[in-house]
Design goal:
The complex is a heterodimer of chains A (702) and B (330). Chain A has 702 residues and is of the alpha/beta class. In chain A, the strands form eight sheets. Chain A has a nine-stranded mixed β-sheet with strand order 17-16-18-19-26-25-24-21-22, with helices on both faces. A five-stranded mixed β-sheet of chain A has the order 6-5-4-7-8. A five-stranded mixed β-sheet of chain A has the order 27-33-32-29-30, with no helix packed on it. In chain A, β25 (509-516) and β26 form a beta hairpin. With 330 residues, chain B is of the alpha/beta class. Chain B folds into two domains: 2-55 and 96-329, von Willebrand factor, type A domain (Rossmann fold, 3-Layer(aba) Sandwich); 60-91, no CATH class. Chain B is 44% helix and 19% strand. In chain B, the strands form three sheets. Chain B has a six-stranded mixed β-sheet, with helices on both faces. In chain B, α8 packs parallel to α9. Classes of the chains: A alpha/beta (702), B alpha/beta (330). The A-B interface holds A 27-28, 30-43, 45-46 and B 108-111, 118, 202, 204-206, 231, 234, 239, 241-250, 252-257, 260-261, 264-265, 268-269, 272.
Chain lengths: 702, 330
C-alpha cells in the first residue's frame, strides 16, 4: 500500500493528545498577590481522578478513529505490480533560437548554442526535436519530420550542424510573430504523425529577450494550452548600449545644407552616459568633420544638431558604449535628377499672366531628389527625343499637328503623362476634338462651350484616385472654396477606359483620365488661371500637379534610407540594373523589380550603364532597445511557461499522475471513513452508557 | 495568630481604654495626610487631658561649685548674694529632641486584605508621629527605604518642614525587595547626635543582622522604637482556596494550598517575630506590632512611653507594652 499524500499521516500523532492532556498539570486560574513568600513553601499538586485513565476501551476506540482518519486523509492506494514500471513518454521539444542583431552582443550566440547542446545531450531515442531560428521571420532548420526520419544517433549531430551554419544577422526581433508561427505549426500538426504516447510539445525559447522584441502581436492570439514555453533568457555582462539615428527623413537630409538632427538613445540599463559622434566616409575612415560629445543619461534620449560632411555617402559613428553592433548609421545622398515639364502651346503664353502656362512656369515642383524645369514648346516642334523618364508630364491647351500626336502616342505608351487643359473660351473646338479623338482613340469625344450662370464648383471627386489621394484626409477634402467661372462640356461615350475623376456640381465632367498602356491622358475642362477659376490661387493646385507629375513614378520611387530586411523596388529604367551590397556582392535586376536582400546595414549601389544611384540600409531602431525584458511579460500575453524537465522529473511527474488516477479509481478513503463512523458510533454508545452507569448505581443505592 | 492579635488588643493598658480611639478605616477616607495626622493627634491630646503623666517637663537639675574655667554667665548671683559662694546652676538639657522616622516603602507594604494597604497605614502613622513631634517643637527627619535607601530628609524643626516631610511620605512604593540593614547603617552614619529613631516596617525580610545594626544605634545613644505594621491576613493566613501566590516584591510565583500550609506558615511567622522580639529585648528597644485595623493612637502611646523611658523614670516605672504582653500571655 502506498499513499498519495503521506504527509497527512503525521496527523496520526494526534492519538498522543489525550495522553498529553492528562499529563499536563492544570494550573489554578488566576494569581493571589501576597506580601511575601518568606514563610510559605510550595504545596504539592493534588492527585485527582483526572490523572488516571479510566476507560481503556473508550481510549482505544478514539485513538483508532484518529488513526483511521489520518490514514484516510493520506489517500491510500494499492499499486498493482503490473503498473509498477514507468513507461517513458516521448518528449517533443522545439528549439526557437533568436538570430536578431542584438544576439551579436558579446558571447550571446555561444551561450545559445551551449543551451541547445545541453538539451541535446539529454536526448532520448523516443524524443522528437525541431529547430527554428527567428528574427523578423521564422526559419525552420530542423523539423519533427526530420527527427522521425533520422536515426536517434544522428539527430543531435544534424541539429548541431544546422545551428553551426547559422549566426545572428542584423534583422529585428519579432518574437510575437515567431512564437505564434511555431505554436500554429505545432497545433496544425496532424495527430497521426506524432509518435505513440508522445507528450504535449515544449518550446525552448533561447533569446536575449530585449525590450525591442515585438510582442504586441500576441495580444490578440489565444495561446494553445497544451504548449508550454521554457524561456532561456541570455544575459550580457556589459549592459551599456546606445545608438544614434538621424531623425529627419531622406528628403530632409538631402535638402539640409549643413546641420542635421541626430537622436542619441541610451538604454535604461546602461552604465555609460558619455558618447561621441563622429563621421566616417564610406570606407569607414574618419573624416575631418568635427566630432561631438553627447551626454545622455541611461534610459533617455537626446537630439543633437550635427554638421554633415560634404560627401555623397557617409556614416555616423557612435563611440563610447559597450555594444558596437548598432553604432553605425549609414547615410546616402544622391544628385537630384533633372526633369522637364513640357508645355506645348504658344511660347508667348508663358509671360501672359492671363494664361494657364504662366502659372505652371511659376509653380515650384522641384523636390530634393528631382529638379523640375518647365519648358514651353511650340506645338509644331519636333518631339523626337521625348522620353517619359526625362519628361514625366506634358501639358497642352491647343490642337496638335498629326506628327506630334503620333509622337505623343508613343510617349504615352512608354509611360508618359499628358494633361490637356481646355483653358479658354472658343467657338471653334473642332481642331482640338480631332486631336483628342486620334490621341485617345475615342471617336465619340465632343467638346462644347457651356453657359454658367454664376459659377460652378467641383463635386464628386474620386479621392481614391492617385491624383486626388493627397486630399483624401478629411481636413483637406474641402474644394468648395474653388469656384470655376467657365468650363467646357466634354462628352465621351460610355467606353470603359475613361475614368471621371472629378465632376462639376452641374454634372459636367471636370477632370477625366484615360490609361494608355503605361501612360495616362487627362482632360481638364476648365483652366486654373483666375479668369477661368480660382484653382491656381488655391493651395490644392501644387499637390494636384505634383500628383500628376508623380503618377507613373509613385510605385517605384527609390528612397535613400531603408531598414534592414525591407524590400526595395528598383527605379524605372530602360536598361538592366545591378545592385551591389556593401560587401560588393552584385545582384542583377530589371527595372521596377524588387530587391529583398537588404540583410546587412550599409550603402547599396544601383548601377546601370547610364546612372549610378545609392541607398543606405540601417538597423531598425527597435533592435537597439537591448534592456532585458522580464520573462513574466510573455505570461501577460497568455504564453504558458514551464521549465523543461529532465527525464527523471518527467517520470516522477508521470508516476504521480498515475497514482492519482489509481487512487481515484480505488477510493479506499471512503471505506476508511465508513469504519471511522462505525467506531465513533460505538464510542458514543459506550460513552453514554458509562456516564449513565454512576447515576444508576446512585439511584440504586438510594 | 488571630489569638495573638486578640492578645495585643487586650494588652493595652487600662488608661488607654479611656481614650476614645478613632477607627482607622474611617480615618483612611481622609485624603489629606496632614489632616489625618491632625485628627489623630488632636484626639490623642483630648484623651490625654486627664493623664497622670501631665507635666514631666525638664527642670532644674543641680548646683555645682564654681571652678575656674566655668562660664561666669551661669553663676547664680542670687545664691551668691545669699551664701557668698559661687555656684553654677545646672538645668536638664532642654534642647529639642531629634527624631528620625525610618519608613519601609517596599512593595510588600502594598498588600491589603482590608480596604487600605499597609503602606497607606504606615504613611499615616509616620505623618501622625511627625505632626505630633513637630507640635512639641522637636526636629523630625525621614528616611524611606525599600531594597535601598530611597529618600533621606534630615531632622529639622523649622516651619514648613512638616510639609516637606509629608511630600516625602507621599512617594509610591517601589523596589523589589526589602533590605532592613541599609537604612539602619545609613542612619547610624548620618545622625551622630543622639535622638529617637522610629523604625516603621513590616519586617518581612530576613532579620539575622537586624540585631547587630540596631545595636549600632543603641551604642550611639539613640533610642529606638520599632513599630511593625502587619495586615491581619498576614498573621492568620485566612485564605481557603489553593492558588498561585505572587510575591509582591520579587514577583516570584508559588503554588500554595493554604489549608495544608497554614499551620507551618503560622509557626514560621511566629519564629520570625520572636527572633525580632529577642533582638529588641536584648538591646532594650521598644518593639510594637500594629495591625492595620487597629487605631493609630496606640503608636502615639508607644511613642510617649518610649519618651518617658528615655526620661529618668521610664525604665523603672513604665513597663513597655511588650513587657506587659509578656505578662498577659504568660
Amino acid at each position: 500500500m502506498s499513499f498519495l499524500a503521506p504527509l497527512y499521516a503525521f496527523a496520526a500523532l494526534a492519538i498522543g493528545l489525550p495522553f498529553l492532556f492528562h499529563l499536563i498539570q492544570r494550573r489554578p486560574k488566576g494569581q493571589t498577590p501576597f506580601s511575601s513568600l518568606l514563610f510559605l513553601n510550595p504545596s504539592p499538586p493534588r492527585l485527582t481522578r483526572r490523572s488516571r485513565l479510566d476507560n481503556w476501551l473508550l481510549f482505544v476506540l478514539r485513538a483508532l478513529a484518529i488513526l483511521l482518519l489520518a490514514t484516510a486523509f493520506s489517500r491510500p492506494l494499492w499499486r498493482s505490480l503490473t503498473l509498477q514500471s514507468v513507461t517513458t513518454t516521448a518528449r517533443r521539444t522545439v528549439f526557437l533560437v533568436d538570430t536578431s542583431a542584438s544576439m551579436q552582443r558579446e558571447d550571446l550566440w555561444q551561450q545559445a548554442t551551449a543551451i541547445i547542446d545541453e538539451h541535446l545531450q539529454d536526448l532520448q531515442p523516443s524524443d522528437e526535436v525541431a529547430l527554428f531560428t527567428f528574427n523578423t521571420t521564422v526559419q525552420p532548420l530542423f523539423l519533427f519530420e526530420d527527427s522521425r526520419r533520422l536515426e536517434y544517433t544522428q539527430r543531435a549531430a544534424a541539429i548541431r550542424a544546422a545551428l553551426a551554419a547559422e549566426k545572428p544577422g542584423f534583422a529585428t526581433t519579432d518574437l510575437g510573430d515567431a512564437l505564434m508561427t511555431v505554436a500554429d505549426l505545432l497545433t496544425a500538426e496532424p495527430e497521426n504523425l506524432r509518435s505513440q504516447g508522445s507528450s504535449s510539445p515544449d518550446i525552448v525559447l533561447v533569446t536575449d529577450l530585449q525590450q525591442g522584441s515585438q510582442l504586441k502581436q500576441l495580444e490578440g492570439y489565444r495561446w494553445p494550452q497544451n504548449i508550454a514555453v521554457d524561456i532561456r533568457q541570455l544575459k550580457v555582462r556589459q549592459t551599456s548600449n546606445a545608438n544614434a539615428t538621424v531623425v529627419q527623413d531622406s528628403e530632409a537630409i538631402q535638402a539640409a545644407t549643413e546641420a542635421i538632427s541626430v537622436r542619441v538613445q541610451n538604454a535604461a540599463n546602461s552604465e555609460k552616459q558619455q558618447f561621441q559622434l563622429t563621421w566616417s566616409d564610406q570606407a569607414g575612415e574618419l573624416t575631418k568633420a568635427a566630432s561631438y560629445d553627447v551626454f545622455v543619461p541611461a534610459g533617455e534620449s537626446r537630439i543633437v544638431r550635427v554638421t554633415k560632411p560634404k560627401l555623397a555617402s557617409y556614416q555616423l559613428q557612435l563611440m563610447g558604449d559597450d555594444q558596437p553592433f548598432d553604432n553605425t548609421y549609414y547615410i546616402a545622398e544622391r544628385e537630384a535628377e533633372e526633369k522637364t515639364l513640357l508645355l506645348l502651346g504658344d511660347p508667348l503664353q508663358a509671360a501672359n499672366r492671363e494664361s494657364a502656362f504662366y502659372f505652371l512656369t511659376q509653380t515650384p515642383l522641384s523636390t530634393p531628389f528631382q529638379i523640375v524645369t518647365p519648358q514651353v514648346e511650340d506645338p509644331s516642334a519636333s518631339l523626337s527625343d521625348l522620353n517619359p523618364i526625362q519628361t514625366p508630364l506634358v501639358v497642352t491647351n491647343v490642337a496638335l499637328p498629326l506628327e506630334s500626336v503620333a509622337r505623343l502616342k508613343d510617349y504615352l505608351e512608354n509611360g508618359g503623362n499628358l494633361l490637356v487643359v481646355l483653358d479658354h473660351k472658343s467657338d471653334h473646338w473642332q481642331p482640338m476634338i480631332d486631336t483628342l479623338q486620334i490621341l485617345t482613340d475615342t471617336p465619340s469625344l465632343q467638346i462644347e462651350e457651356t453657359k454658367i450662370i454664376d459659377y460652378a464648383m467641383l463635386s464628386k471627386i474620386d479621392f481614391q484616385h492617385p491624383v486626388f489621394q493627397p486630399f483624401a484626409e478629411p481636413q483637406f477634402r474641402d474644394f468648395t472654396k474653388i469656384r470655376f467661372w467657365e468650363h467646357r462640356e466634354l462628352s465621351v461615350s460610355e467606353k470603359s477606359d475613361w475614368q471621371v475623376i472629378a465632376s462639376f456640381d452641374n454634372g459636367s465632367i471636370a477632370l477625366v483620365e484615360q490609361r494608355q498602356k503605361a501612360g495616362h491622358v487627362w482632360i481638364m475642362t476648365s483652366g486654373w488661371q483666375p479668369i477661368q477659376s480660382q484653382l491656381a490661387l488655391s493651395s490644392k493646385f501644387i499637390p494636384l500637379l505634383a500628383g500628376m507629375l508623380e503618377r507613373t513614378r509613385s510605385r517605384s520611387q527609390l528612397l535613400t534610407n531603408y531598414e534592414v530586411g525591407t524590400a526595395v523596388t528598383m527605379p524605372s529604367s530602360a536598361v538592366a540594373l545591378q545592385v551591389a551590397s556593401p560587401q560588393g556582392k552584385p545582384t542583377n535586376l530589371r527595372s521596377d523589380e524588387v530587391f529583398a536582400e537588404t540583410r546587412v546595414p550599409g550603402i547599396y549601389h544601383i548601377t546601370s550603364p547610364t546612372t549610378q544611384k545609392s541607398f543606405a540600409v540601417n538597423l531598425a531602431g527597435e533592435e537597439s532597445r537591448t534592456e532585458p525584458l522580464d520573462v513574466t511579460e510573455l505570461e501577460k500575453f497568455g504564453v504558458k511557461r514551464r521549465t523543461s524537465e529532465s527525464l527523471a522529473t518527467l517520470q516522477e511527474r508521470q508516476r504521480k499522475m498515475r497514482d492519482m488516477e489509481l487512487e481515484t479509481r480505488q477510493k479506499l478513503w471512503q471505506w476508511l471513513l465508513l469504519i471511522v463512523l462505525v467506531i465513533l458510533a460505538t464510542e458514543t454508545l459506550l460513552a453514554g452508557r458509562s456516564i449513565n452507569r454512576p447515576n444508576l448505581t446512585a439511584e440504586a443505592s438510594s | 495568630m488571630a489569638d495573638d492579635a486578640a492578645t495585643i488588643d487586650r494588652s493595652m493598658p487600662d488608661q488607654f481604654d479611656r481614650v476614645s480611639l478613632i477607627d482607622p478605616a474611617a480615618l483612611m477616607r481622609i485624603k489629606n495626610l496632614q489632616l489625618r495626622a491632625k485628627v489623630v493627634v488632636d484626639g490623642f491630646y483630648n484623651g490625654l487631658h486627664r493623664s497622670p503623666f501631665h507635666g514631666f517637663s525638664v527642670e532644674f537639675s543641680e548646683y555645682r561649685q564654681y571652678t575656674p574655667g566655668d562660664d561666669p554667665r551661669y553663676l547664680d548671683w542670687k545664691l551668691f548674694a545669699r551664701s557668698d559662694r559661687y555656684y553654677i546652676k545646672r538645668f536638664e538639657d532642654e534642647t529639642n529632641r531629634r527624631c528620625h522616622l525610618l519608613l519601609d516603602i517596599s512593595r510588600s507594604m502594598e498588600f491589603a486584605s482590608i480596604t487600605y494597604t499597609k503602606a497607606e497605614y504606615a504613611r499615616t502613622l509616620a505623618a501622625t508621629l511627625a505632626y505630633y513631634l513637630t507640635l512639641q517643637r522637636d526636629s523630625v527627619g525621614l528616611l524611606t527605604f525599600d531594597n535601598a535607601v530611597a529618600e533621606f530628609i534630615t531632622a529639622r524643626s523649622r516651619p514648613g518642614h512638616l510639609h516637606h516631610l509629608l511630600v516625602g511620605l507621599e512617594r509610591a512604593s517601589q523596589g523589589n525587595g526589602t533590605d532592613l540593614n541599609a537604612p539602619l547603617e545609613q542612619i547610624a552614619s548620618f545622625v551622630s547626635k543622639r535622638g529617637l529613631i522610629i523604625f516603621i516596617s513590616d519586617l518581612l525580610a530576613p532579620v539575622d543582622s537586624l540585631q547587630t545594626n540596631l545595636g549600632y544605634l543603641r551604642s550611639r545613644g539613640h533610642d529606638v522604637l520599632l513599630i511593625r505594621i502587619l495586615d491581619p491576613a498576614e498573621i492568620a493566613l485566612p485564605l481557603k482556596d489553593a492558588s498561585v501566590f505572587l510575591d509582591l516584591e520579587s514577583k516570584r510565583e508559588m503554588y500554595v494550598d493554604p489549608e495544608t500550609s497554614r499551620s507551618e506558615y503560622r509557626s514560621r511567622f511566629q519564629a520570625h517575630d520572636e527572633q525580632v522580639q529577642t533582638a529588641c529585648t536584648t538591646l532594650g528597644i521598644d518593639y510594637t506590632t500594629l495591625l492595620t485595623d487597629q487605631p493609630l493612637e496606640q503608636a502615639l502611646f508607644d511613642l510617649l512611653a518610649a519618651q518617658l523611658r528615655q526620661g529618668r523614670v521610664a525604665r523603672r516605672h513604665l513597663p513597655t507594652r511588650h513587657a506587659q504582653r509578656g505578662h498577659s500571655t504568660s
